[in-house]
User: Fold this.
Amino acid sequence: MGNYKAKSIFLIVIVLGLGFYLIKYEKEDYTKVFTLDEKDFVESTLGKDKDEVISLNKVEKVSIPFDGIGECCDFVDDENIVCTTRNSSDSFVDSKDNKINYFQINILNIKENKSKPLSPIHNKSQNFMISSPDKKKIFYSAGKDILDKSIYKVNDNENKSFIYSLKDQKAENIDYKTFLKWMPDSSGYIGVKDKLFFHDTNLNKNINILDEKKVKKLGNIFDICISKDCKNIFLQCYKWDEDFYSYIYHINLDKPNKVSFIFKGNIKKIDALDNENLIFTGKFNNEKALFIYNVPKRDINLLLDDEVIMFKLSNDRKNIAYVKMDKEGNKNLYAAKVYKNSISYNLMIYKNIYIKNNNLNWSEDNKKLVASFYEDKEDGENLMYIFYFK
Assistant:
């Protein structure tokens, strides 16, 4: 009997003590957050989180040691950036009332903060350059040097395009206004001159993709993107009599001279996410957003339900940088991971910017992003930043 009473008293004490602890915790410590170490998670779950979440390691503002206004920029290696500069924010007018600006390509050493012209390149019309994915070559166009606007004459024969090797410091002349897009493996580029072709820079030869008759039916080729395996090409084309719509076509390079129509819409930019999926921004079905199109299934879904002004995929197609407009009309720069054909956990890395398409580029190792832009509008200070990701 004594043992029974003792056990009962002991049990009552335990129950009362536990109840008091729970009441105290609920009233006084209900906001406490417990942090678990990574070893407490299942390995597969942790791996998924790493694939989905993008993390910023550091941000570096690049001092621009040259006069003029920065335009395009891209990485050369860990220490150098290639960028173009414009002589003035104002254009002067030649004898035919064409606005003219001088452009020059520079190599900028980030650590030493020193800049030098790549070569005496001037450009009177196409104010851009495009680096190959491996960052070893540059496409650019050069126009005639204009020393006296009163004697200037238009002559397209004096306009030239080049492929410049950063290693050899030599430029290969290519047909003017033919370059469209580098191949993802940097083996060459897709171009158009009557025919759509692939130019192999290693063998220095053209391989035809579409004949002249089929190219004419496409209309005006505005943009092009290529899948990572270099086998699928997507063309963004405009019809001459339609101002707002662009038509998207697909070509499999294993079956050249055959083109398939996919869809049409008010589309700003396209890019190939992988061998089966195309992403694009613009207006589709009365929605302004970032979309994904699955080629085999022929269906379109939302990636981001926001007005995306522009975007840039990394070379491995696992990271994306994009500019979207908020409710107040501000254009903000974000970075995110692309995971299982979706975008999640986006990270705002700069607020209120004015940026152009060729001023946002990923490094070859996909861990750094360089951006050259203005704050709000193109009449302020030109800024350049490098964003380092983990």
